[in-house]
Amino acid sequence: MSNGIRVVAAVFVDGGRVLACRRAAGRPGGGKWEFPGGKVEAGEDPKAALRREIREELGIAIDVGELLDRSVTTIENRRIDLSCYHVEETDGAPIASTDHDLLEWFARSELAALDWAEPDLPAVRLLSADVDGQD
To answer: What is the pTM of this model?
Structure first.
């Protein structure tokens, strides 16, 4: 993809709660909420990239499950191709991040009230729509 990046993100769900991470001040998008993850390197499998990024960022191992959403967002003439996957931690829940100053679990009904990074919004809408088990 010219003038764009491929990104993967992890959606942790624990019962009715979803993990959201707030970008640390001083980083691009500082103060915005997002799902943790990062860039897919050239030739890298997206699920492998997500496992690598979560190990680097949150210091935990994960199993990558179903794709929740894949959307392309254009921000300042840059295309961001974001794939959000359902994941499960395999060696403990995330408690700290190299890129975020806050990790919080929110009820699905609370997600829409957060100030999300624009590329994460399609996945947030899907998770929020599923609050009552209706779609």
So the answer is: 0.92
